Amino acid sequence: MRIALIAPPFIGVPPKVYGGTELFIAQLAEGLQRAGADVVVYCNGESTVSVEKRALYRKAQWPIQGEVYDNLKDINHTSWAIRDASESCDVIHLNNAPGLANSRFLKLPFVYTIHHPHLEGLSKFYNFYPDIHFVTISDFQRERETMPHVQTIHHGIDLSLYEFSEKKQQYLSFIGRIAPIKGTHLAIAVAKKSGIPLKIAGEVQPLFRDYFDREVKPHIDGKFIEFVGQADLKAKNELLCNSLAMLFPIQWDEPFGLVMIEAMACGTPVLALPGGSVPEVVKDGVSGYVCQDPDEMAKRAQQISSIPPHLVRQYVEEFFSLNRMVSDYHQLYSRIVSPERRPAIKEITEQPRAIA
Questions:
Q1: Are 300 and 291 spatial neighbours (Cβ–Cβ below 8 Å)?
Q2: Which CATH class is domain 2-156+321-341?
Q3: Sequential DSSP letters for 14-41
Q4: What distance in Å separates the CA atoms of residue 10 and residue 60, rounded to the nearest whole number?
Q5: Residue 54's beta-bridge partner residues?
Q6: What is the pLDDT of residue 338?
Q7: Are 227 and 197 in contact (CB under 8 A)?
Q8: Domain spans of the chain?
Q9: 178-191: per-residue pLDDT in tens?
Q10: What is the 3-state secondary structure (H, E, C) of 266-318?
Q11: pLDDT bucket at 142, cuts 50 / 70 / 90
Q12: What topology is assigned to 159-316 in CATH?
């Protein structure tokens, strides 16, 4: 079976720093290849995912510069990718909305993973394509959609990429875009209420520069509240595996939240507010706590050492491994392609790999 995974053209696959969708595509592609599938990823020319790659645009571009012209770039990249994939692939897996319009012209099966939060306009658009096999990344998402073919496949990650530590240092961590919906200002409030220092890692996009300057920067002293900037995989591992807990004080309906399972893979529990998928990902007392407000988060932070790091790691191994995600997607692909193109998936194990 030959599978085309089509990424948006803006961020490398995998991302150097920011890019949840691109991290998902990279790990799924490599996992499928290890399981015996023939995979091609359509991405930009700076991508380093270790499967066959094809690119229309040589350079990455982030952040995007302007909605109209960048949408045209996305449409151009995706339509080219679908046309190219149609010549050799058995299933085309989309990860951005522009590609759906092109599905009308082909009889090949399409899968579309919904990475965005529920928006009424997007859902109306999705319903024009009843033959697409939609995948939501949480049950919270799925319950809000009405397409005839939709199922949930939770994200999984390559656990060999994440360093585990039983011993923790006396600080809390926050990783994410520095934006109001991510609740960076609330993470700072939790740190101050709990008396535990906080290290913040993330991207300050131009759109939210005023928010950073007003709500975050005044609190940064380099000691109690520290801002470390964007974190690549190596820096992310160091930050997370040594942290008492990762704070996830979101202010929106999070579709999944990959960084939560990245923290858990390091043996670090998550303290989160209950938006969107959070109760599906965080199990109270096992992998962290779902809290009702910053005051409860601060109280839980003071008690977080009662959760053993090895149990946090075991939890993510059981429910959010790359093995499980690859198997779920392979079963979906096999169900929708023609019968003669349905090979069995090989059992795979997550082999240790060097951290770049």
A1: yes
A2: alpha beta
A3: S-SSS-HHHHHHHHHHHHHHHTT-EEEE
A4: 5
A5: 42
A6: 72
A7: no
A8: 2-156+321-341, 159-316
A9: 999 999 999 999 99
A10: CCCCEEECCCCCHHHHCCECCCEEECCCHHHHHHHHHHHHHCCHHHHHHHHHH
A11: very high
A12: Rossmann fold (3.40.50)
Residue bearing tokens 């995948």: 135
What is the reported pLDDT for 296? 98
H/E element holding 247? strand 245-248
pLDDT digits (tens, 9 = 90+) for 254-289: 999 999 999 999 999 999 999 999 999 999 999 999
Both tokens assigned to 232: 């690549």
> pTM of this prediction?
0.91
Please give the biggest Cα pair distance in the chain: 63
d(CA 201, CA 227): 6
pLDDT digits (tens, 9 = 90+) for 60-117: 987 777 666 688 999 999 999 999 999 999 999 999 999 999 999 999 999 999 999 8
3-class SS of residue 150: strand
Which parts of the chain fold into alpha helices (H)? Answer: 20-34, 67-85, 98-102, 120-126, 139-142, 184-194, 209-211, 233-241, 258-265, 278-281, 294-303, 309-319, 322-336
The answer to whether the CB of 153 falls within 8 A of the CB of 135 is yes
Same fold, 2-156+321-341 and 159-316: yes
Opening angle at CA 291, ends 290 and 293, nearest 5? 150
